[in-house]
Fold this protein.
Amino acid sequence: MKKILLFSVLALGMIACSPKSVGNAVGNAAKDVVTKGFMNMISLNNEGKWSDVLDMTYPKLFDIAPKEQLLQQFQQMDMLGLKMVTDNVKIGDLSEFIPSGNEEFAKFNYTGVQTISAADPSIMPMMKQQLEMAMGADKIKEADGKLLVDVDQEVYVIKDKGTQKMYFMQSSPQMAPMMGQLIPADVLEKLK
C-alpha cells in the first residue's frame, strides 16, 4: 500500500496527453491546439481512463517506468478507491518549440486544484503527509475528508515531427532526476 501511495505522488508529476496534430501552428494557434490537447488529457485523467492516458504518454517514460507496471499501479489505486480529479485549470503562456532530433519541445505552466479522495479514509493522513513532503504543506488543504492540492506546475509538450503527435509530461520534484533522461540537456536549458 505504501508503494501505491508513493506512486500517487508520482502520478501527480506524470501527465500524458492525447496525441494531437500541431502541424506548423505558431502563436495563438499553437497555444489553442496545446490547450485543447491538455484539457482532453485532464478529462481522461479525471475519468480514471488509465489505459488511454498511458497510451498517450511520452513513450520514453516507459524506458524508466514500464507501461504495464504503471497501469497496474493505477488499477491498484482504483481498487483502493483513490480518486484524483483536477479542476479550475488555467494554462499560462506557451514557449516556442525547440527542435531536437525528430522531436520538438515546448513548455507552459498551469494552475488548478486537484481533489484527492479515498474509499478508506484511514489512508488519507499518510497520503497528506507524503504530499506535504513532496509539494509543501502550504499546497495541501483538507475539506470534507478530501485533500485539496494547489497545483502550479510546468508541463513539457513533446511533438514528434514525423507523426505530428503531441504528448505532455508534467515536471515535478519527483520527476526532476529523470528529466535529463527524457529531454535533451540543451533543450532543458533553453526552456528554463
